[in-house]
Amino acid sequence: MTPENARQEGTLDDLQTAPVRTQDIVSEDVERAFRDGQVTGVEGNATRIETHLSRIFLTGDRAYKFKKPVRLPFVDFSTLEQRRQACEAELSVNRRLGSPIYLKVHPLVLSPTERFSVGGEGRIIDWLVEMQRFDEQLDEALARDAVTSAHWDKIVSDIVRIHRAAAPDHLTGHAVDYRGVIEGLARTEADGASRLGLSPAGSELIERQESALARLSPLIEARRRDGCVIRGHGDLHLANICMFRGEPALFDALEFDDRLATTDRLYDLAFLLTDLRRMGRRSEACSVMNRYWDMMEEHEEGLSLLPLFMSIRASVRLAVEIERGRLEAASRYRSLAFQILKPHSPRIIAIGGLSGTGKSALARRLAPELGGAAGARILRTDVLRGIQDKDADVSTSSQGDRYALKTRERVYACLAHHLKAAVSTRSSVIADATFLPDGGRLQIEEAAGPDLKGLWLEAPLDVRLKRIEIRTMDASEADTSVARRQEEPARLSGLWEKIDAGGDLEQTLTLARSALGLPCPRTTSQFE
Hints:
Strand content: 5-15%
Strand order of the largest sheet: 1-2-3-6-4-5
Largest sheet: 6 strands, antiparallel
Number of strands: 16
Mean pLDDT: 88
Distance between the termini: 27 Å
Structural class: alpha/beta
Number of helices: 20
């Protein structure tokens, strides 16, 4: 595996590729020297990988990455000095983002004895980035079902760390910048179609994206003013996440143009969500979205941006495939871009019940099946309580205090606030709580209105206690003593339907789908 396989799938970098190139300075002699193990400082024979912008030589545990001497509309690597600067930029930006695989930038030198070497004395022929090889890219691991929940937690934590550490940029990320992206993609697609002797596709997708952009421009500008525009990864799709020594790691951030990588942080995240949708992984997309929102403490209003941002990211891949003459793949990306933008009927669902009835497990299974670019937003009182404690700088708190009446009332008020904000974006929402005491249900019923559908889960005490005992790494701090004290409400309003949750999760899920009028999920293709 190599850090540059990402480019073979078609990414933002590929859009900069044009047929105009300078003479390639990495000569056949250099390639032969790497292949035959005759480069000083490189252990063993190397194999070569070609991409649009780079050439990589692979040995047992190293990758040596050269920039191709190309001169393109958006990037110029045509001189030795420009390639040196590009290598330094790649090392710098990826180290700043915490990637563990980047080691050093070296000159490729032709020594006085006519031997090539990485570093050392002699005439500098070119520059390269030395990197550690990794196990595989995340899309490959995902295809093997080898990506665990813990892996996703680390990935989202790394993205949040990067986004939190980045300084806000108030001078870019205007709505007009995204209009420029849409127009640029349309030109790229038209150019590619022309060179293939084809007529460009109709303008319906562009018109829908521009219509959505016009509607969302005030929010985009407000988020820019609030500091949501940052220099992010810039090319955050599955093939730019690798498995390195058994752990996922981000790499290959867009290095050659800070402007292209400086966007609303949700546009940075949108590439990953779109790529998961591309692979038919709605469950993972929904989980990543919700983890990011909770960890980042993201504004619920930002949910309304996901359809547009994800559709534009799909159009990036669409334009790339047209440029490369891969018309079938381009057609699938066009369908995905349309599908993500397609209006849906949002659902507002509350899942209540005593501790241990399986509310959160059910919410996680239902959320991907509801309408939305990445499924439903899950609002959980256990998560909101943790955020409130942090905001109040609560370092220690007794369980009694955390579950006292006033504390619970404050958490339910917070839940109602978040739910109203999420509902205003026409996103599907699931509220997950015990909804005890009665005031908790009343607050959520008032906030959601008559469109609310409540599912009240019921399970015997012994089943609930057993589930609580085996919990690990869960936001809920309700233990068996809390569960024993809880009592079923005397009365539920007509908005709630009781669900037998005493069986396994699949049985509960079937009953919940029936109560909500949801079909069993269909099998999806790679591009849905």
